[in-house]
Amino acid sequence: MRQSRTPAERTHRRRTLRVVHLVVLNWIAGVILGAAFAGLLVWFDIGHIGRLIGNASPMWPPLLLLFGGFAITFGALVAGTAVMLIPRDEDPPDDPPRGPLVPVKIATRVRPSR
What we know:
It is a single chain. The protein has 114 residues and is mainly alpha-helical. It has a domain at 10-84. The protein contains three helices and no strands. The longest helix has 37 residues, at 7-43. The radius of gyration is 26 Å and the shape is flat.
């Protein structure tokens, strides 16, 4: 028997799925952007990368390393930027956080005795 969820649980689940959807789509966009950038490096032979890859006897390992590295890096950058640009909630919660209050000791400068 499945229990019905409260509206707060449904809202939390919906928000979580939206964030996951946002991260996955931006990661895919970053991977495509990284692969395109690596392709442009090889096509225009920037730093003689195209010539080096063209002279490699099996061509697929350097291509895999180049495209994989750029795809992972650009994917992580785009997804991380998307997460950091999510707007914060405008209304802070009315309740203070639960839990015991911890006293904070302020460090002061102590003069050595002479």
